[in-house]
Amino acid sequence: MSVFADISQADIKNQTITQSSQDKQVKPTKITQSEIRQIQQALPQKKIIFNHTFRVKLPECNSCLFVPVQESLPKNRLTLHLVRDNKLLYTFPQSQQVKSWNFRQLKAVSFLQLDFSGPNEDGILLITEYSQSPKSNRPLPVAILYQRDTKGYKVLENTSSILTKRKVKTVAEAENIFRNELQYLP
Predict the structure, then answer these.
(1) Is the dihedral of CA 52, 16, 186, 121 positive or negative?
(2) Which of 81, 90, 99, 153 fits as disulfide partner to 146, beta carbons 3.0 to 4.6 Å?
(3) Domain count, the chain
(4) Across-strand partners of 143?
(5) How far is CA 40 from the centre of its chain?
(6) Which domain covers residue 110, as residue numbers?
(7) What is the pLDDT of residues 49-96, one digit of tens each?
């Protein structure tokens, strides 16, 4: 089984998302205007990254909204949330590799099925840019991989660090490393 939605390849105008022939449970879809209002109610006065916000189906929340947010205080950082029925259900943990860095941009989100046995095979890959200080003009590519665990999601710090050290800038580059070197994807 392979990546079942490559959000970086999404055709936003036509609201289509590339999917494999496998019928996976996440099934990300673009959000509607009423869902935008729901997010704004659940996360008031937050800078939502709408072009990477999706409705997903997850065991934790059935059908809910995956919402990335750019926080600005005390410094720029990326937070990820699951929202349903105007309520914040879950906030993803922050990666240790970027805690002291400044978030610049979310480049891509990809929902993938990792080739692990058991119920915790779903993963979420983020391709981002950070800087080491607010005044730095040099963006650093950072990849962060989340895996489902018994209480939500955890960051696979070692794998994320490998991708970041290699300066992975696309989902395709990460997939090649997952498949050919780490055997995370079949």
Answers:
(1) positive
(2) 153
(3) 1
(4) 127
(5) 19
(6) 5-182
(7) 999 999 998 877 889 999 999 998 777 899 999 999 999 999 999 999
Q: Angle at the Cα of 70 (from 94 to 120), degrees rounded to 5?
A: 40
**Statement: residue 150 has pLDDT above 70:** yes
For residue 80, give the nearest of 128, 10, 32, 35 by alpha carbon.
Answer: 128
* Rounded CA separation 28/68 (Å): 14
Alpha-carbon distance 97 to 26, whole Å? 26
Flag the least confident range among 54-63, 79-88, 137-146, 170-179.
54-63
> Other CB atoms closer than 10 Å to residue 85's CB: what's the count?
11
What's the full length of the chain, in residues? 186
pTM, rounded to two decimals: 0.81
Which amino acid does the sequence have at 153? Y
Within 8 A by CB and 6+ apart from 95, the residues are 142, 144, 155, 157, 160
Work out the average pLDDT over 22-31. Answer: 70
Helix (H, G, I), strand (E, B) or coil at 9: helix
Give the N- to C-terminal CA distance of the chain in Å, as an integer.
6
**72 is written with which tokens?**
């600005």
Q: What is the 3-state secondary structure (H, E, C) of 87-115?
A: EEEEECCCCHHHCCCEEEEEEEEEEEECC
pLDDT of res. 117: 59
